[in-house]
Design goal:
CATH superfamily of the largest domain: FAD/NAD(P)-binding domain
Largest sheet: 5 strands, parallel
Strand content: 25-35%
Radius of gyration: 21 Å
Helix content: 10-25%
CATH topology of the largest domain: FAD/NAD(P)-binding domain
Strand order of the largest sheet: 3-2-1-7-18
Distance between the termini: 16 Å
Mean pLDDT: 95
CATH architecture of the largest domain: 3-Layer(bba) Sandwich
Order of helices and strands: EHEHEEEEEEHEHEHEHEEEEEEEH
CATH class of the largest domain: Alpha Beta
Number of strands: 18
Structural class: alpha/beta
Bound molecules: NADPH dihydro-nicotinamide-adenine-dinucleotide phosphate
Shape: elongated
Low-confidence stretches: none
C-alpha cells in the first residue's frame, strides 16, 4: 500500500509494481502532489526544456499503471499499524490490508495564523499562485515569504499582475541566488524587507494589508498597502497527523526514519518524500526516496 500521489508515491509504485508487489496507491486530496501547484519544472533530469508539472505527474502515473499499480481515489482517514497485516481506511469506508505500507503524504502550505487570513480565504487569500493567479490579472497582489517558493510565486504573478509586493520579514531573501536575481531584477516586484503582516482588510474580500516595519525597533512604523490578493509562501508542514499514534515524528511532525533509509520505527512501514524530509524537499529527492522505500518494502515482504 502506498499513500500519496506525488513523485515519492508514484516512484515507489513503479518500483513496487515491477517487483510484483501488487501495489495499491491511495491518491489523497491533491492528485500529483504539491508539484502540481508550481508553474514549470526545470530541474527534474530528463526534461531538458522543462515540463509542466501536470504532464510530469501524469507521465509518472502512467508509468506506474503500466506495470500494474492499482489506484484508489480518496483520502486515508485512519490507519492501524499495530496489527499484521497493517490496516488503511479510505474515506471512513473502504478498508485495505497490506503487508507493507509506504507513507508518501507530502507536506502542505503554512499560513500566518491571522484571523483575517481565515476570513478572506478563497476571497483574496491563497497559498497557490499557479492555481489562483489567473484571477488577479492586471491587479495588485502581495506574496509573503523570502524563500524559493515566494520568489517563484512572485515571478509568476508578475507575469499576470500590475504589481507584486513581496513581504519579507528579514532584511534579506533566503532563496537561491538565481531566484533572488529574478525577483530583484523584475520591475513589477517591490520587495518590502523587514515587514510583517498584522491584518488584512477589505469589504467582503481582500483590499489591503496592514504591515509593520521593523517591529520592536526604534524606527518601527505601521504601513498599509492596497492589494487585491494575498499569497502565502512561507513554507510547509508535513501531512503526518494521522500516523501520530504509530510513527515517531520530530517536533514539526516530519516522520523520523532510520538514518539514510526510509525505515520508520514500525517494521514494514516506510516513509518517503517530503513527509520525512525537512531539508531538501525536491521532487527528484522525493522520487529517489520513493524508490528506496519500495526496495525496502520488497525486502521486508520477502522476509515475512
Ligand atoms: P523556506 O522554508 O525555504 O522559506 C520560507 C520563507 O517564509 C522564509 O523566507 C521565511 O522567513 C518565511 N516565513 C516563514 N514563516 C514566516 C512567518 N510566520 N511570517 C513571515 N515569513 C515567514 O520554504 P520554501 O517553501 O520557499 O522552500 C522550501 C524548500 O523547497 C527549500 O529548500 C527551497 O529551496 C525548495 N524550493 C525549490 C524550488 C526550486 O528549486 N525551483 C522552488 C521552490 C522551493 P525567514 O527566512 O525569516 O525564516
Amino acid at each position: 500500500m502506498i499513500i500519496g500521489s506525488g513523485p515519492a508515491g508514484y516512484t515507489a509504485a513503479i518500483y513496487a509494481a515491477r517487483a510484483n508487489l501488487s501495489p495499491v496507491l491511495i491518491e489523497g486530496p491533491q492528485l500529483g502532489g504539491q508539484l502540481t501547484t508550481t508553474t514549470e519544472v526545470e530541474n527534474f533530469p530528463g526534461y531538458p526544456d522543462g515540463v509542466e508539472p501536470f504532464t510530469m505527474m501524469d507521465d509518472m502515473r502512467r508509468q506506474a499503471e503500466r506495470f500494474g499499480t492499482q489506484f484508489v481515489s480518496g483520502i486515508v482517514t485512519k490507519v492501524d499499524f499495530s496489527v499484521s497485516p497493517k490496516k488503511v481506511v479510505v474515506e471512513d469506508e473502504q478498508e485495505f490490508e497490506a503487508d507493507a505500507v509506504i507513507v508518501a503524504t507530502g507536506a502542505s502550505a503554512k499560513y500566518l495564523g491571522l484571523e483575517s487570513e481565515r476570513t478572506y480565504r478563497g476571497r483574496g487569500v491563497s497559498a497557490c499562485a499557479t492555481c489562483d493567479g489567473f484571477f488577479y490579472r492586471k491587479k495588485t497582489v502581495a506574496v509573503v515569504g523570502g524563500g524559493d517558493t515566494a520568489c517563484e510565486e512572485a515571478n509568476y504573478l508578475a507575469g499576470l499582475c500590475e504589481k507584486v509586493y513581496m513581504i519579507v520579514r528579514k532584511p534579506y531573501l533566503r532563496a537561491s541566488e538565481i531566484m533572488q536575481q529574478r525577483v530583484l531584477n523584475n520591475p513589477k516586484i517591490e520587495v518590502l524587507f523587514e515587514h510583517n503582516t498584522i491584518q488584512l482588510t477589505g469589504e467582503g474580500k481582500v483590499q489591503g494589508a496592514d504591515l509593520i516595519y521593523r517591529k520592536g525597533e526604534a524606527d518601527e512604523e505601521q504601513r498599509h498597502i492596497e492589494i487585491d490578493g494575498f499569497f502565502l509562501a512561507i513554507g510547509h508542514h508535513p501531512n503526518t497527523e494521522i500516523f501520530k499514534d504509530y510513527l515517531h515524528r520530530d517536533a514539526e511532525g516530519y516522520i523520523l526514519v532510520d538514518g539514510d533509509s526510509p525505515r520508520t520505527n514500525v517494521p514494514g512501514v516506510f516513509a518517503a518524500g517530503d513527509c520525512a524530509d525537512p531539508h531538501y524537499r525536491q521532487a527528484i529527492v522525493a522520487a529517489g526516496s520513493g524508490a528506496k522505500a519500495a526496495i525496502e518494502a520488497d525486502k521486508y515482504i520477502k522476509s515475512l
